[in-house]
């Protein structure tokens, strides 16, 4: 079977993503987080890999802008792991968008990811992924998941 992802013109999409990420730096620098050009190239590659592994197609520039705006103020992010954490968050985002059958909007999913990451999971991406998977398979609707999150936060 041919790899159709390798046939797509990626340079334009990567240029657009780089422009978006450069814009995100204006906010993230307030929190001591900045993406270098090499980080931006790596994030574009990781996004392409995540799309390919989930069989998804992205018509926009992807979730990075929303992820940066949601996560840049996290006490669990540092400059040393910022780009790698964004890449993993992007991979988790696409994985759960696919697995949820689009039951969660982009904003709902990112909000849930942020609450878990900064709350119960204390910056652990593995635990956050496990909790999202658990929520997806135990609570098919978003409202039940939000109610469960609130009960965990109250404890």
Descriptive report:
With 155 residues, the protein is mostly helical. It has one domain. The protein is built from 7 helices and no strands. It has helices spanning 10-28, 37-54, 64-71, 82-99, 106-118, 125-138, 142-154. The longest helix has 19 residues, at 10-28. It is globular. It starts with 9 loop residues before the first helix and ends with a helix.
Write out key terms for the chains shown.
mainly alpha, 155 residues, 7 helices, disordered N terminus, single chain
Short note summarizing the structure:
With 155 residues, the protein is mainly α.
Write the layout of secondary structure elements.
Layout: H1 10-28, H2 37-54, H3 64-71, H4 82-99, H5 106-118, H6 125-138, H7 142-154
Helix content: 55-70%
N-to-C SSE string, H for helix and E for strand: HHHHHHH
> Which consecutive residue ranges, at least 5 long each, have pLDDT under 50?
1-9, 151-155
The structural domain count equals 1
How far the N terminus sits from the C terminus, by CA atoms, comes to 51 Å
Determine the mean pLDDT: 83
Radius of gyration: 16 Å
Structural class: mainly alpha
What spatial form do the alpha-carbon principal axes imply?
globular
**DSSP, total strands:** 0
**Biggest sheet: strands, sense, closure?**
none
- What's the helix count? 7
Strand content: under 5%
